Amino acid sequence: MHRRRRTALAVLAATLVAAPLLSACGNQSHPGAAAVVGGERIEVSTVQDRAADVRSAQENSPEAAQLVNKSGQLNRAKLHGLIFGRILDRAAADAGVTVTRKEIQEMRKASGAQQGGEERFEAMMLQQRWVAPDQIDADMRQEVQLPKLAEALGADLGTPAGQQVVGEALTKASKALDIDVNPRFGTWDDQKMQLGTYSAPWITQVTEFTPKDSPAGA
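That's the Lipoprotein sequence above. Prediction below.
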């Protein structure tokens, strides 16, 4: 029986319990910005452009209608990914972790092989993660980066204790970046790594992690 690989990001995110947030007033001193992270702006236009790339890829898919219907929070998903990427970059930098282009390409090649080829891999990323083909390398970078961060921290992502260590490092980085989100997109939760009540559709949120839940689905 085929068992889907659980990625490093999914393993960690599965321990972050999704919970509704109280509405909050956001700082509106940055017009045109979807968010300000570490003093750097993420423009609304950047979020919209990334969402448009995904929409274009979806519309060219044989399953266009289904893909579009399932990705109603696409703009928030793209902003969530941009914010989390900067948090992971900060946590990795704090731990002295770097990622090479070669490592990214090796991860993409291995992931593609597991899906039965690049075309099927791209289709899976579009369907399950709302990632357009030209956005895949950024996703693979995080898949390389997170386990390397865990290793640098002496943490095992396959255990609750290890996930807690990495989660604490990410929370520390998130707080240090002083994230300010445009109210139209919600508010950022440093503890849950979550944008408002948005939950990434490819992540199964759970309230418990047990040892039998292995990180690779093995």
